[in-house]
Amino acid sequence: MAKMTRSGERGGSRLNFVVVLAIIGILAYVGYVYIPISYNAYLFKDLMQRNVDAASALGHTPIWVREQLAKSAPDYGVPADAVITPTQNENRMQVRVQFKRPIEFPGYTYQYEFDQTVKSSQFLLAK
Predict the structure, then answer these.
(1) Number of helices and strands (H, E) in the chain?
(2) Which pLDDT score is estimated for 13?
(3) How far apart are CA 53 and CA 15, in angstroms?
(4) In a domain? residue 4
(5) Residue 54, domain extent
(6) Are 30 and 105 in contact (CB under 8 A)?
(7) What is the pLDDT of residues 13-49, one digit of tens each?
(8) Number of domains the chain contains
(9) Is residue 61 part of a domain?
(10) Hey, what's the torsion of the CAs at 82, 36, 46, 72, to 10 degrees?
(11) End-to-end distance of the chain based on CA atoms, in angstroms?
(12) CB under 8 Å to 38, separation ≥6 — which residues?
């Protein structure tokens, strides 16, 4: 008798398992594609901060900051058409970097936008 009432439930757990496996696979793929780009952008922002701090402390010009960032850009996956805008205000160095990088997924292309501005630290001013 118990066998008859449960006969319509056959395969239900297999379908749920396949759906969960598909969702986990999709999330793993998205992470595999997106996380390295996001991590490189984080490292590039750190490089931007170190360069403006060094320029401010050593008395370099804003052009030096642009050259240093442009030299290091390919190592961080920054496209060649990135806009690097260094400025100097009140003895503090500031740089803004803007670029878009496409991330391709099957059937969809996401535009990763990087627009960061960093300022040199207050205590590293060159006299």
Answers:
(1) 3, 3
(2) 82
(3) 56
(4) no
(5) 12-124
(6) yes
(7) 888 899 999 999 999 999 999 999 999 999 999 999 9
(8) 1
(9) yes
(10) -50
(11) 92
(12) 112
